């Protein structure tokens, strides 16, 4: 096209940009303190196991106080480099109505947000506790690396109630905030929830001073529901006949991130070493994400549940 692309003097004063599916998962990933540059390639997270709960803690007058074992365990998170770049010419800056540097940086920020969000989704879906809805009134819990049962129906409020109860009395999952857990639910899963008359919209339960999460649409069974529209994060076509929308329900201390270099957008002038004729903008970061308690469905250790299907 040469320089002809810069000759249109009736160009609109507004630059249109392609929309992006907003970030959700990264909002719930905790950044670990104490890691940064010159700290190596990984960080070891130390975790304390729960003490054994005695049937009775009563003491007899002449007995010694029983001694319980206090166990510590660790898991490591390793960083990797992430990033993408775009080049643009000095000529495009010189002759175009719009300086390409500004929309390029904005587009890179959006790309970075989505890429990191999808990375966090992959990490969260690695939890070893999986729930597969098999009827309108029940489902199957699996403790494995991947779903092993076909979902026959879409998720509904009864299923969320089963997960909530299992969190409370079987798996001992601490709520994320207050008395509530967080539910990240695909659009299809969210529709299965919203079609139930017992679903509460967020306006019904938020009190003054409460924070509304990004895309939070309501709460049920002490689970604050947030819609996920990016099907690369949570699918809308799982189960027999693509009936199921995926979801992740979790509590406190679920996923963590370490940063050697915080992801950011940066510009490099004279990218091609051609006397300033070619420039570049890129997003780049050195981070690592992982579950705080990976590879376990042990009560008190597992922190989240993946709703999916084989």
What features would you highlight for this structure?
single chain; 310 residues; alpha+beta; globular
How does this model look, in words?
The chain has 310 residues and is α+β, with helices and mostly antiparallel strands. It has a single domain (22-49, 72-310), classed as phage-related protein like fold, CATH 3.90.1690. It contains four helices and 14 strands. The chain has helices at residues 90-95, 101-124, 157-169, 187-194, and strands at 29-31, 42-48, 72-78, 80-89, 129-135, 138-143, 181-186, 200-201, 216-220, 223-228, 247-250, 255-268, 278-291, 304-307. It has an eight-stranded mixed beta sheet. The chain has a four-stranded mixed beta sheet with strand order 1-12-13-4. Strands 2-3 form a two-stranded antiparallel sheet. Strand 5 (129-135) and strand 6 form a beta hairpin. The model is unreliable at 1-21 (pLDDT under 50).
By CATH, the architecture is named Alpha-Beta Complex
Approximate shape: globular
CATH fold-level name: phage-related protein like fold
Helix tally? 4
Which structural class do you get from the secondary structure elements?
alpha+beta
Cα end-to-end separation: 50 Å
Number of strands: 14
Written as H for each helix and E for each strand, in order along the chain, the element string is EEEEHHEEHEHEEEEEEE
């Amino acid at each position: 096209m040469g320089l002809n692309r810069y000759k249109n003097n009736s160009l609109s004063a507004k630059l249109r940009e392609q929309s992006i599916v907003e970030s959700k998962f990264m909002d719930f990933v905790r950044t670990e303190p104490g890691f940064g540059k010159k700290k190596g390639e990984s960080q070891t997270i130390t975790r304390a196991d729960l003490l054994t709960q005695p049937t009775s803690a009563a003491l007899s007058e002449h007995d010694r106080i029983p001694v319980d074992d206090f166990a510590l365990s660790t898991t490591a998170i390793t960083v990797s480099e992430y990033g993408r770049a775009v080049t643009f010419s000095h000529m495009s800056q010189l002759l175009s109505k719009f300086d390409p540097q500004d929309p390029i940086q904005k587009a890179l920020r959006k790309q970075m947000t989505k890429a990191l969000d999808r990375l966090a989704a992959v990490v969260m879906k690695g939890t070893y506790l999986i729930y597969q809805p098999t009827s309108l009134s029940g489902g199957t819990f699996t403790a494995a690396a991947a779903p092993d049962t076909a979902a026959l129906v879409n998720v509904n409020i009864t299923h969320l109630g089963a997960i909530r109860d299992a969190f409370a009395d079987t798996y001992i999952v601490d709520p994320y905030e207050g008395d509530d857990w967080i539910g990240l639910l695909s659009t299809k899963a969210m529709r299965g929830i919203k079609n139930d008359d017992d679903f509460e919209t967020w306006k019904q339960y938020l009190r003054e001073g409460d924070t509304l999460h990004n895309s939070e649409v309501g709460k049920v069974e002490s689970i604050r529901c947030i819609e996920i529209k990016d099907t690369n994060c949570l699918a809308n076509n799982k189960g027999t006949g693509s009936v199921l929308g995926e979801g992740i329900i979790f509590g406190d201390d679920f996923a963590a991130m370490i940063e050697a270099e915080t992801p950011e957008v940066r510009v490099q002038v004279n990218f091609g070493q051609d006397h300033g004729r070619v420039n570049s903008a890129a997003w780049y970061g050195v981070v690592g994400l992982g579950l705080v308690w990976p590879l376990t469905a042990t009560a008190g250790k597992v922190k989240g549940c993946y709703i999916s299907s084989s």
